[in-house]
Amino acid sequence: MNTDAVSILLVDDEPKNLLALSAVLDGPDRRLVSAPSGEEALRHLLHEDFAVILLDVHMPGIDGFDTAELIRGREKTKDTPIIFLTAEIRGQGFVSRGYSLGAVDYIVKPFDPEALRAKVGVFVDLFRKTGEVKRQAAELSDMTTFLNGVLESATEYAITALDPEGRFLTWNEGARRIYGYSAEEMVGRRDLAALHPGNGETAKKVGELLRTAARQGKAEGVMEHVRKGGRRLPVSATISRREDADGLSIGFVMVARDITAQQRAQAQRLQLIEEQAARSEAEAARDRLQQVIDVLPEGIILVDAHGQVFLSNAAADEIAGRDLAAPSDVLFGDFGLLHLDETPYQPSELPLARIVQQGEVVRGEQLLLPNATTGLPVPVLVNGAPLRDQHGGLHGGVAVFQDISPIKELERQKDAFLAAASHDLKNPLTAIKARAQILQRQALRMKGAEGRRVADGLRAIDQTATRLTAMINELLDVARLQMGRPLLLDRQPTDLAEISRQVIAELQPSTDRHDIEIKAPTERILGLWDRARLERVVSNLVSNAIKFSPEGGRITLIVRGDDHAGEPWVSLEVHDEGVGIPAEDVPRIFERFYRGSNVAGAIEGTGLGLTGSRHIVEQHGGQLLVESQQGQGSVFTVLLPSRAPLVAEQDAPRDGQVVAAGAS
Amino acid sequence: MVRNRERGQAGYAEQTAQVLAGGDPSELNARTGAVILVVDDDHEIRDVVRWLLEDEGWTVETASDGRDALERATRARPALIVLDMGLPIMNGEEVAMRLQDVYVDPPPIIVVSADGRAGEKAARIGAASYLHKPFDVDVLARLVRRTLGDP
Lengths: 664, 151
Known about the structure:
With about 675 residues, chain A is α+β, with helices and mostly antiparallel strands. Chain A has helices at about 15-25, 40-45, 65-75, 90-100, 115-155, 175-180, 185, 200-215, 260-295, 315-320, 350-360, 405-445, 450-480, 495-505, 530-545, 610-620; strands spanning about 5-10, 30-35, 50-55, 80-85, 105-110, 155-160, 220-225, 230-245, 250-260, 300-305, 310, 360-370, 375-390, 395-405, 490-495, 515-520, 525-530, 555-565, 565-575, 625-630, 635-640. In chain A, strand 4, helix 4 (about 90-100) and strand 5 form a beta-alpha-beta unit. Chain A is rod-shaped. Mean pLDDT of chain A is about 85; it is low at about 605 and about 645-664. The longest helix of chain B has 19 residues, at about 1-20. Chain B has about 150 residues and is of the alpha/beta class.
């Protein structure tokens, strides 16, 4: 259907009349619909709106009046104009009936084409205009609905209309949400001042905005409003002037938005910027620190209070074969640390854990740090300390470590050298002694004095070799100590009283002027000690006692079991009545090659014995003490920790028998 | 050292007494059958220990390094091994460990060491006994007899 064309319904039972009407009324903006009867006309009306109906009064079947009545009876068509066509006007009743049926006009046939065209033209124009008005009304209604919808759903905005005095005329859902007041409380009852009670500054601002809006149409500003209940809120408000159709001011519209969140976001943004600035400053400081520590040859790592590594230097990363400060789950620098015996560190044993958690200062701890690149453990020496803030609070720890592979290698080489020296010196001695002893056996099998003389000579060779062995052992110990290597103790169940008696038995024959005696309990004084070396200590002390009492006298050895701080200890005292030691020399007598001022040059000796003796005793976990007064003799005391004897009396150890696996 | 020497002398006295009592050294040679493997890289020590133990009546085989010792001890089970710890190619400790793989009940070992830690090493490998170099031949002879159950 052509929407622009206006439809006209022509109803007449005479086809030539219809034709004539069509010829007169046809036009480009019209659509002429012909109906030969009332029934046909009604059918058309069911489907179409017509601007005007030209209706013949006299028709067979339903005549024009009946048809008009039916048309008027339908809601949709009750206002459609009807022009009756008739050959004659028959009386007043006829005319009034037509008008009562809603006829707008009568046209008497034969009609004047110009008059008919003009009359129909009026209705066509009317129909067109009415259609437009209807459409506009519908559109307006849609728009109003839409605007109301917008107004009510714009809940982020308080949108209110105000009269010229500032009283509220409307109050939307957004306003209710932002200010807490309902429309009933505000509309017609209150004005703008209700939104800023007692706030002079806002009142002034609102006044300015209203004046500016009245003058320029629109003004906006940020101010503080007060919500129902008293909470203050920052808002951004726009006030616009409202005008009527003639451009006269009829009030204002205010649109306000709560900008609390916006202001908060702004504040956060500012804070973020400040933090960023502080952070980049801290990073710059860290970079400088990094550059400084990267120059150092020792490895350095720093952990925070949680144990997270936050800084490591180039040397540390190189030793570990990885970036130690790279983000990871590793806490307290636990990069697979091992003790020197290759057992892993427990979490609580980690140097940095002890530093950070207990505030411990770690000094000179040796451990193995696996290199992540080579997979090999690197021996390192670790020193470390807690990091504290100005108030002394612990907030991390620093560990400094160095690769001691070269030192360990040197130690290994020293040990290898000493082992080789020991091996090379003792093998020939072993051969000499063994041969002398076997030959001695065979000489004894010979009969007569000859065999006995040979046997005596061989025994002398054997004894000399034994003395040489003792000297070599001592020399090797001295060499070890001078190289800074600990003695390797061969611990075995050893009786200190027995050793003392043996030493006396060996040394008493070397002197006539001294009387060496022992005071010891009858039971054994047992401990897990290095027998050969303790023999050397006792022998050294007794030899010294002889040597430093040149006038002779009594030398007394006292052996006893003792308790020392709740632990079982044993002591051996060697008393002499000799020259004693000057007070000023006492602290120094254990120094290597040091000899007392009263004996240097007068009594033979190297000064090595006491040093070695003290090392041996200390390596057993014991102490070698001295008390002396010049001219009053000296007392040397060996204190040794003794463990409970490992074997019962009847199972006393015999030569060279392995008695306990734990003897090492 | 002092003690060993004295004990050693006591040992000779025993021997002397035995000889004076009319014991014939050749009687000692009746102990043949049990083979003792003597392992040392020093040929003088191998020689002198062989001399001693053969004089005592035992049959002696020798080896000069750890691998040789392991091969010999694997080929034929010796009754006893006198094992030096400081051996070339394979040290004494490793020889002892490997023998534990070869034999469910490996031959007893007398550890000999020059480094002063024979006791510790013996304990570690479960040896029957040990000696420090230089040792007294009587002590070695006695340990061998005791280990082989021949007083």
